[in-house]
Amino acid sequence: MNLNLPGYRRLRHICLVKKSLFFFALFSYLLATSASASENGQDIKSTKHKKQLTIANSKAWKPFSYIDANGEPQGLLIDIWKEYARVNNVEVSFVLTDWNESLQAVKSKEADIHAGLLWSEHRETYLDFLPGIVEIDTQLFFSSKLWGTDVDSYLESGRVGVVSAGYEETYMMQHYPKVKLIAFGNNELMLKSAFSGEIHAFVADFQVANFYLYTSQRPNQFSPVKHLYSGLIRPALPEGHNQLRLELQNGFKRISAVDLERIQRKWIHVETVYPKYLLPMFIALILLLTAAYIFHLRRAVAQRTHDLNQLNIELQRLASIDAMTDIYNRRYFIELLQQACDDNQTGLFLLLFDIDRFKLINDNFGHSVGDFIICEMVKTIKRQLPPEAVFARIGGEEFCVLIQGLTAEQSQELAKRVQSSVTNSHYCHDNINHAISISLGAVYSEDVYIDHQFLINRADHLMYTAKSMGRDCYQFNKL
User: Fold this and answer.
1) Both 41 and 138 in a single domain?
2) What is the per-residue pLDDT for 24?
């Protein structure tokens, strides 16, 4: 064969070109595969060495942290820590439990970090705190049954719910040592107890209480009556972990202010976005309502004035009435007594009495039975009193009656009748008959100017004299 023929040379050239293209394609494929494997290896290595953080907090501290119906952690603090994990390329897991257990988890190093809490001197002994991320206000809440009750007086002896090991418990113990604190494992348990009537007052963060109240069926059952303190929720970690503390401080700086505001607005603020087509409809509606308002202005003003007057009358009534018995309260009774003493023209008669051994009823049958007996006893005594009598509850089981215009003989007879009416009555609750008695002090005065406190003290002395004589009797004295 002649290898120098033109056709043969062209064929050999084509074969060489194909071989070159084949080896070039093979080399490119191997290079790309190697690069992809290298990138995957780096990703696997990065994932394998991603930092893990375990974060503890309360399971029932809405809207800051809680466990939802699906068992998932939710809340403002949870979202902040998820954002921290995203911007810092770390993994976080949450341990949500009762408040005291969340502190113990960090203290025992079962958790790396506490998601957020208030600083206190005691907590400073075992925790290092980071800068604050959310501000809270803490208030004392009263139920509607305590309307008209003096807040400061209640804090001297009343029962108040708090979260066990929470800052509010520490604060109340330091500032109101005489109050009886009822501790609960978390806010949800405390609010359930409040709604069931077991407690009538509690201390809670304003945002937390509002979240629970306004997602309940009775949002107006409790109201804030006293601001206690404000503070910043601050993340915390076990004392001495300086490297982790620096990492956390630097990590929080990477979260933008815009993202923090977005998270807070999601849980604390409500923003409504309206469709654009509603604007012209809204303007037309405003014009229509404005015309209607102008047309009915005089009638609306008159009706509103009437409503305000009625509301003012009702508020005045509530301020003077004991919520449980529907008779006058101590404050209003003292005002009326002082006025009567300053201008005593027709003779003044004061009864002061309380229920004998009432504590045994509460201890043996519960406060609900005790409250029932008080209300029924009030009805019994009302039937013995003339219409002009001023009847008031001035203490837990202590009562006063003020009457003007009677003679001394009529007053003594009325004192005897009131005392015996209670002795002769029985009050049935849950098929159990309860018999009670009262010890009564009665004082009658015709002096024109007499000190009201002297009159109360004299009646109180007579009541205790009746108790010393064996109870279930009365003592009368004409001044």
Assistant:
1) no
2) 59
Q: What kind and span of H or E run contains 303?
A: helix 297-320
Average pLDDT over residues 445-468: 90
Residues 181 and 132 in one domain: yes
Domain count, the chain: 4
Looking at the structure, tell me whether residues 43 and 55 fall in a common domain: no
Residue 162 and residue 56 in one domain: yes
Q: Is pLDDT above 80 for 250?
A: yes
What is the predicted pLDDT for the residue at 13?
A: 55
Pair 354, 386 in one domain: yes
What is the average pLDDT value for the chain, to the nearest integer? Answer: 87
Within the chain, how many helices (H) and strands (E) appear? 16, 20
pLDDT for the residue 33: 54
What is the reported pLDDT for 29? 61
Same domain, 60 and 37: no
- pLDDT for 20: 58
Give CA 248 to chain center in angstroms: 31
Tokens of 34: 């190697």
- The predicted-structure confidence for 168-189, as pLDDT tens digits, reads as follows 999 999 999 999 999 999 999 9
Together in a domain, 294 and 380: no
Q: What secondary structure does DSSP assign to 159-219, as a single string?
A: EEEEETTSHHHHHHHHH-TTSEEEEESSHHHHHHHHHTTS-SEEEEEHHHHHHHHTTSS-T
d(CA 349, CA 416): 13
In what helix (H) or strand (E) does residue 376 lie, and over which residues does it extend?
helix 367-382
Residue type, 111: A
**Residue 305, domain extent:** 279-320
- What number of residues does the chain have? 479
